[in-house]
Write a structure and sequence with these properties.
The chain is of the alpha/beta class and 353 residues long. The protein has nine helices and 16 strands. 43% of the residues are buried.
Length: 353
């Protein structure tokens, strides 16, 4: 079967192994019968994510699962049907949430790209948020995502896409961006916007970009390379100059960049330049909000300081909020504040304030 397969637990008697398969962001559990040499995949229960899969002393199997409206909880699953028998441990009550559905669209080269769409109440078209995840070797699922729910609560359609470079869609899909960073990712973003407008989901003048880490880089990059398409952009923990960031990174991150860009800034200057938002700073037209950690070692802040200076010198609308932490913060109040900043920014532009 296609997808990433990994063992997650042995049964107490050693006769069975729990296997987790992840393909195109959809998780499934299987049980391997050691004596028979056969695996039986459990029917997929309606979970957005399944992490782990642990045998209990009674022979049942437990997993950490969530849905769009329900945070992670440990559930006991039927080993024959995959149905939820009971909730063994929950961190809170079920929350009211908007449904999340999987969508696909064809990118500019015909490649199918998948995303997760959340709609607010009422008829569209809506102002819309197009989110790109970090990584790039990561992916988004249809599980519990409070940030997407918050956007829908405030009247925005929310689409997060698994652009080229994302994992769980095969090696070719993931590696297509290697040595050509920013190109196919932005192509997927542009065609995602077209899909939102063509489907009547989004207002043509009301599509906003957002993303954190690598997604923040893509947000700033698309604002400069396709300035006419966006109502605004909100980047969190981003980089504006990839070559400059390379100078400030740890050796481990430099090694990662050499693999992703197929060389150092000296060996592949055109790749670093083409993928750097600062290259296109003069073309930026939409308002920009950046939320950046002062002590971020993964996305060093120096290039954002320069990017802000360049935009201000050009008279472009930009806001930068600096917080005293690293690449992310475990302070829940601070994270809520970041979401509030983005909501106020987008609502004001969309005419909802």
């Amino acid at each position: 079967r296609e997808g990433d397969l990994s063992p997650v637990d042995w049964s107490f008697d050693g006769a069975r192994v729990a296997l987790r398969r992840l393909y195109q962001t959809v998780p499934r559990l299987s049980i391997w019968d050691v004596a028979r040499g056969e695996a039986r995949e459990l029917p997929h229960a309606p979970y957005g994510r399944i992490w782990g899969g642990f045998f209990g002393p009674d022979g049942g199997i437990y997993a950490n699962c969530d849905t769009a409206a329900r945070p992670f909880r440990a559930v006991e699953m039927d080993t024959e049907t995959g149905a939820e028998r009971r909730v063994a441990l929950a961190i809170g009550a079920d929350l009211p949430g908007h449904p999340v559905r999987s969508i696909t669209f064809r990118s500019s080269d015909g490649q199918e790209v998948q995303g997760w769409l959340t709609l607010p109440d009422g008829p569209g078209p809506f102002p819309a948020i197009l989110e790109t995840h970090g990584g790039p070797d990561n992916f988004m699922t249809g599980g519990y995502y409070p940030f997407g729910q918050a956007w829908a609560d405030h009247g925005f359609a929310f689409l997060t896409i698994n652009y080229r470079g994302s994992t769980t869609f095969g090696r070719a899909f993931m590696e297509q961006i290697w040595g050509d960073v920013g190109h196919w990712e932005v192509e997927d973003m542009v065609t995602a916007r077209a899909w939102l407008v063509d489907e009547g989901v989004a207002r043509p003048d009301g599509v906003f970009l957002t993303g954190r880490s690598y997604g923040g880089i893509l947000t700033l990059l698309a604002l400069g390379t396709h300035p006419e398409l966006w109502a605004g952009g909100m980047a969190v923990s981003a980089v504006a100059d990839l070559a400059l960031a390379y100078e400030d990174e740890s050796d481990a991150l430099k090694a990662y960049d050499v693999a992703l860009f197929k060389g150092t800034p000296e060996q592949a200057p055109a790749v670093y330049r083409a993928g750097s938002p600062v290259t296109y700073v003069e073309r930026v037209a939409a308002p920009v909000l950046i939320i950046q950690g002062r002590n971020d070692t993964r996305c060093p802040p120096r290039s954002i300081e320069i990017y802000e200076e360049r935009l201000r010198a050009l008279g472009k609308p930009i806001e930068v909020y600096w917080y005293d932490a690293g690449h992310w913060t475990s302070d829940v109040a601070e994270r809520i504040h970041h979401q509030e900043l983005m909501l106020r920014f987008a609502r004001a532009i969309a005419g909802r304030e």
